[in-house]
Design goal:
This protein has 333 residues and is an alpha+beta fold.
Length: 333
């Protein structure tokens, strides 16, 4: 009983006298279970006689490689209490201790240094906590064969084939060039000769049907004037043909004879006109007179037509001297 009372008395004496005669520090961390990269808070608190000491806490260089310094903030307490709060990042790979860190108390009479108690920090693994055994190794994966060489080889073959195809004409023997056989050009057909052949044929035949005679004469002269004078004689009326020929400068006497022949042909074809034998003979005589007049009057036109035809079809070359295109003077027939 006496011993118990002595112990209680001693503790009360130490507790009452400690603030005045000694300095003390405490430290703790939260949370204390950390994974790699987690941030945590580390706190150091101190108690010292007021007015006699000033505490100096560890700076950021006091922490080892397992802890990355982020920030620090100090808190002033009342009377003789003081604290500092560190914000750190955890990079240890196992359970570790925050080491003892010195806290210096600077006094007017003497300086003192007190170490913080070590703080345990527990490593929290990111793996599945169900089993601590190592997981079995996966079977060796056989990578697929690279097809890049095959692709490059295929592209090279395609390029070579394309070059050979482009220059295939240089590698094969040239065959002799076969020129097409020239197409014979028909000779120039003189419209005046065609008209003369038609008139001669009509004179040699005895036509009972006078309408056919007049019709063939009309068509023969219309074809002639359409070819030589470049007018639509076959598709035009007699009046239109005579008007166009007058514009083209046809001789007046020849113009009158042609008008009689075309009008008699129209009457024989469309009206109740029945010519006598003498009238039929007269119309053939008239056709021959017109034929002889056209030989003189259209000689230059027919010569120019033959020249242009032969030049156009390559039968003859263009003459260096320009051919005069002067219509011959009208002659009285």
């Amino acid at each position: 009983m006496l011993r118990l009372r002595f112990t209680i008395f001693t503790l009360l004496l130490v507790m009452i006298s400690s603030p005045a005669i000694c300095q003390s520090v405490r430290s703790f961390a939260f949370p204390d279970s950390l994974a790699i990269g987690d941030n945590f808070t580390f706190v150091i608190t101190s108690q010292y006689p007021p007015g006699r000491y000033q505490p100096v806490y560890p700076d950021e260089t006091a922490f080892d490689d397992a802890f990355e310094f982020i920030s620090v903030q100090r808190y002033r307490g009342v009377q003789s209490r003081d604290s500092i709060v560190y914000r750190l990042q955890f990079f240890a790979l196992q359970d570790t201790l925050m080491p003892e860190l010195p806290v210096n108390f600077i006094g007017s009479e003497a300086d003192q240094s007190v170490l913080t108690p070590p703080v345990p920090l527990y490593f929290k693994s990111l793996l599945d906590p169900v089993s601590d055994d190592l997981r079995p190794l996966k079977p060796i994966f056989e990578f697929a064969r690279s097809y890049v060489p095959f692709i490059l080889g295929g592209l090279l073959l395609i390029i070579i084939a394309a070059i050979l195809w482009l220059y295939r004409d240089r590698f094969k023997q040239r065959e002799p060039e076969v020129l097409p056989e020239p197409v014979p050009v028909p000779p120039f057909v003189n419209p005046l000769k065609r008209l003369s052949d038609e008139i001669n044929e009509l004179q040699a035949v005895n036509y009972d049907d006078y309408k056919e005679l007049y019709s063939r004469l009309s068509i023969a002269f219309r074809e002639y004037f359409e070819d030589v004078y470049d007018i639509l004689a076959l598709e035009s009326t007699t009046k239109e043909v005579l008007r166009d020929l007058s514009v083209q400068g046809l001789d007046d006497l020849l113009h009158k004879k042609l008008a009689k022949l075309l009008r008699d042909s129209d009457m024989a074809k469309f009206a109740r006109y029945k010519p006598t034998t003498d009238q039929v003979a007269d119309i053939l005589v008239l056709a021959n007179e017109m034929l002889q007049s056209l030989k003189k009057f259209d000689a230059h036109r027919l010569s120019s037509m033959k020249y242009d035809y032969e030049v156009r079809h390559g039968i003859r070359e263009i003459e260096p001297v320009d051919r005069p295109l002067i219509t011959p003077k009208k002659e009285n027939l």
